[in-house]
Automatic annotation (TrEMBL):
Belongs to the glycosyl hydrolase 5 (cellulase A) family. Transmembrane segments: none annotated. Keywords: Glycosidase, Hydrolase, Signal. Residues 103-306 form the Glycoside hydrolase family domain. It comes from the Bacteria. InterPro entries: GH (IPR017853), Glyco_hydro_5 (IPR001547). Residues 1-20 form the signal peptide. This is Cellulase family glycosylhydrolase. The keyword Signal applies. The keyword Signal applies.
Amino acid sequence: MKIQNSIILFCILISFSVQSQTSVPVISLNPNEIISGEFIGNGIEFSAYPHADTDDSEWGKLMTDKKWQQVFDRVSFIKPKIARVMDQANWRYLKGFDVSGNPIVDFESEQMKALYKLLDYCEKNKIIVILGEWGQPYKVHDTYLNLQNSFTGANDPKWIDLIVKNLNHLINIKKYSCIKYYNLVNEPNGYWATTDGDWQQWKEGVKMLHQAIGKAGLDKSISIIGPDATSYNNPKSKYEGLDWVKQTALQIPHLVSAYDVHDYPSKESIRSGEFQKTFEALVQFTDSTQRKPFILGELGIKGDSSSKEHLGDQFTSVDSQLSVYDYDYGVDMADALIQSMNSGFDAVIAWDLDDAMHTKDDKGDKHQLKRWGMFNSLGTELTNNSADENLRPWFYTWSIMTRYFSGDMAIVKINDLNFEKVRATAGVTKSGDFTIAVVNNSDKEARFIIRTKNMKLKSKLIKYLYSENNRPVNSKGYPVPSEKINLKDNGISVLIPAKSVILYTSYKK
């Protein structure tokens, strides 16, 4: 009787197991359903530490060779495919004006040498660079040298001439082939921009710069990216925020070789998926006019830094996102990146890498740090807090999703993923390598199978897991795989915990 009961129980368990397996949802990955066939890869905002790069800077030369090397080591793990390097003429090569009002330039200044250090790294590591200036020289700081009226705007021929001289030096003299795009004025539709939302001024400046680049024979090496707008609606502007992108596509598509936009969505819009809907429609619009690369040039999550008690220090500006210290920020940024890639963006750039790069209004006040980074290289020197130099949680997810989504991949659709707040994106190479990233921003685990029968699969995958209680790292704090997976039955069995991220890849790095 006991044997008979045991057999009955075994049969029940087997039946339950089969039913459980067959009831697990199956989603499909099809390499022929391409979202982006011009994918560049993801990257970082990367600045040359204007307050700490030379003996004459506001903080002195705090960025020593050792500090630079630590930054480069960390960036080398991230393996960005693209970097946005925004600067200012009067930080680097513009040293004043002669008695006739002509600019005095010095391309071998100590400040330029600091920029060369950064560009040398990008050149060596084949990182595409978007170079640009925050805005009209000397106007960024109203009191800087009392020369804020030395240029009349983005359409001032003197500034355009200065930009082209700098580009000629960088491309023809210094031989930087990594510089592919030029960004004229950061977020020109904003009230904080030197253009203050003046569409016509910016448009004229772009036209003049395009002509000057061609006349200098630089058009085979570098082109213009724009409009670099945000979703902010400036009442002084002829067009609302994201309409700047549409008008660029409609009015001056021949002047730009790539579109770009910035956004700082709320956590709620990311978690609900509304973020993707907004930009999916915008990318589809530009693709319908004239298809060209579309880059999300700054991505961060809207912050509330009204209370500095979160850190217990006096070094944080209101232009900060204190959630960078929190585990959840790593989930939310991964979610935003997945939605961005699924929207059709060809590259996504994180704001930003390092707290030590910028201060509020870039005036060099160490009590006004812009805390948005993956770390603070100068935690010891600026805040007397060496722990602030450690990697923050979101380094984990941004690095693996940048490292393993490469420029030789097409971003393809994943269908039938019908779990609330669970999203995924995938990249596939022609040789059959692939990367799949999955985020679960809900409060419960999700289980499903990713069908991969349409793909040329290799025998093993590596898996990275970012969860609150399990995110393996090495001695430097860099992510390491949680396991290796043998593929069976042309599918990947996924069990993703609540509030976590998983990345699968066959890509070797």
